[in-house]
Amino acid sequence: MALFGGFILLLPPASYGQGKNTCLDCHAVLPPPLEVAQEQFARDIHAEKGLNCASCHGGDPSNEDPLEAMSRAAGFRGKVRRAQIPALCGSCHSDAAYMRRFNPSLRTDQLAQYRTSGHGRGLARGDTKVAVCTDCHSIHGIRPASDTRSSVHPLRVAETCARCHSSAEHMKGYRLPTDQFAAYTASVHHEALVQRGDLSAPTCSTCHGNHGAAPPGVASVEFVCSTCHVFQMKLFDASPHRAPFAAAGFPGCVTCHGNHRIARPSDEMLGTGRDSVCLNCHSPGDAGYQAAATMHEQLKQLESAIARAQEILDRAERSGMEVGESRLEQAQARDGLTKARVTIHSFTLARVQQDIQAGMQVAEKTYQAGLAALEERDYRRRGLAVSLVSILIVLIGLWLYLRKLESRAAGGATG
Question: I want to staple 201 with a disulfide (CB 3.0 to 4.6 A). Which of 193, 196, 319, 363 is the partner?
Answer without folding.
Answer: 193
